[in-house]
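Technical appendix A lists one of the benchmark inputs used to test multi-chain prediction within the project. The record comprises two sequence entries:
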Amino acid sequence: MTRDLTREEEEWLTAAVIGTASEEEKAAAAALLADEETRDAARAEEAFLKALKSGVREGAEDFASPGAMGLQRLLRDIRAERNTGGGFSFAALPKAGRAFAVAASLALAVITGFTAARITGEEGSYRTAGLSEAGTLQVIFEPGATEGEIRALLLSHSLEIVEGPSALGVYRLVKRGAEAHALEELRAALAAKKTLVQSVEIE
Amino acid sequence: MSQSEEDRQRFLIARIAAGDEKAFAALYETFEKRLFAFIRSKLNDPHEAADILHEIFMDVWRKAGKFEGRSKVSTWLMSIAFHKTVDRLRKKKGTHVALDDEAFEIADEGPGAADILQSAQEAAHVKTCLDKLPDVQRLVLHMAFFEELSYARIGEVMDRPEGTIKTRVYHAKQAMKKCLGLLLGEAA
């Protein structure tokens, strides 16, 4: 004897076809497809959902987006806004926004630390800010420096971000286990990267 | 999406907040096509859709510092896109675009499952029926079946409870079945 699906059962199948089903929903959907009582209805519903998904995707992928032209227009408007004084002011950010910026940077520091650890074979190289260090570098990157360039620079010198960017865009960097005299060499090496580093000082 | 990709996107937002145009360009390249497809899923005019996309990214530039990281970057962007698209529809139609209107007529005696499936396999039928859906149902279906967002994340985008989203997807699906069945009848 066969029967129609309940609304909840249809929702399990929908989530399974979309690809967002939990493990329980996946198991429930599989059971519906296997059970003699619900198999026919479940298979028909699944086939409909797959056809619907395919139709939605096919329609959406046909659209030609603005692409590079759209970006040029945006950059032109951003610069115009900046020149007329209507631009963004980091100092005007709410505290929550600044906190997020710091958190995002620290997240990068964690990634960088773990990546460096993999490269060097060390473990637990990342430590929280505030530990005593031989010294800290204060760095401001050029606005045009990309995430990838900054990451590569930090990895090449085994540097980690412990704080930043501040309201003025300042990052505090450390090199774990570095002797104090090595800091001056690091400062000079970073200062030489003029396309990436706007300023660098020993704290 | 991997955690490292989410971290990358969050880092880009932090850099945009500091005025980094290259980070802005990278974020644009990451999301431009997806957001444009989302807007176009409801707006037929590509120029108007491009204007909304422009407004979204101008907002990103101005408000990156206000992003608190409580949701995924993609959810934040989709939420801006959703509300801007609904606002535009509201202005165009001069009417209220209901976010919670569940009123929907479902046929008592609909076409059979085989007929619906046959019709759904015609891409033109699916497009015709999507065009006939209420605005918000269409956007919800796009988020579910194209963006593959969970009900919870669609709820975040629309600022509505997950249960409401489940109901909306269900109703949108029923509406599609009804429409596809009728189209097959017309074509026969």
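The longest helix of chain A spans residues 95-120. Chain A has a mean pLDDT of 74. Comparable benchmark entries are summarised in Table A2.
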